[in-house]
Amino acid sequence: MSPVRQPNGSPTGRIIARPIPIGMALQPARQAIDPRLVAKKKRDFDPGKFLATIGEGRKPVLFQRKHGIFAQGDAADAVFYIQTGKVKLSVVSKTGKEATIGILGDGDFFGEGSLAGQLLRMSSAAAMTDCVVLRIEKRVMMDALHREHALSDLIVAYLLARNIRHEEDLVDQLFNSSEKRLARVLLLLAHFGKEGKPETVVPKISQEMLAEMVGTTRSRVSFFMNRFRKLGFIHYNGGLQVHSSLLHLVLHD
Question: What is the pTM of this model?
């Protein structure tokens, strides 16, 4: 009688180990590792991409020059990120007096008070130039900040820098002359102290607006602007150009 063949092909009851191709041997290991690699890849987060693309609860909005983005007293339900353009922040007193409290540009956030529990806007925001602004719903931004450390680090660094700037503004207002305050505002508008070449100050920025930011009168601003131009600190060429020599006026005691 012929020996009964076992399912593994051996004519005896012994189990014979067969060589397995290396690729097949490694396949279970790949299956064990791949899910973790995929999960890690999915966790990779790029704040720049988050702030440059459309997604759930965030969309870019085009605002034309002089158009309002939100008004003082509106519901604080979103954070905004400037992709391109300039935005003016202002406040209005109960008597109707308006003051410009900041001019923001590419890469700046505004409306972030909503993240700290602000229910209503404390200021108004309007486009100074045609600009593209990414609107991020408060809920979406809060979820992303809790989930993504890279984004929360970016926002914390930005807010700390903004807080330092406000402290400097206060010291400037308390101790410096209106001439030095105007010089500092012009330098900040021209992005001195930031990476890259200083840029042209926003075209057609009015002396009334500069007076609001400096905390003085339009006539004083006009007087100092004429003086700066005669000294070669600034000049007009399709827009206001600010030279680094203006910095000496701010630093000189």
Answer: 0.71
Structural domain spans, the chain: 47-172, 177-251
The answer for residues whose C-beta is within 8 angstroms of residue 220's C-beta and 6 or more apart is: 178, 211
Instruction: Show pLDDT as tens, one digit a residue, over the chain (253 residues).
Output: 555 555 555 455 554 445 444 444 434 444 444 444 444 444 578 899 999 988 999 999 999 999 999 999 999 999 999 999 999 999 998 888 888 888 899 999 999 999 988 999 999 999 999 999 999 999 999 999 999 999 999 999 999 998 898 888 888 888 889 999 999 999 888 877 665 566 677 667 889 989 988 989 999 999 999 999 999 999 887 788 888 888 888 876 5
CATH class of 47-172: mainly beta
CA end-to-end distance (rounded Å), the chain: 115
Q: What would be the CATH architecture of the domain defined by 177-251?
A: Orthogonal Bundle (1.10)
Measured in degrees and rounded to the nearest 5, phi and psi for residue 163 equal -65, -40
150-155 contacts, C-beta under 8 A, 24 or more apart: 150/45, 150/46, 150/47, 151/45, 151/47, 151/50, 154/47, 155/109, 155/112
Cβ atoms of 129 and 86 closer than 8 Å? yes
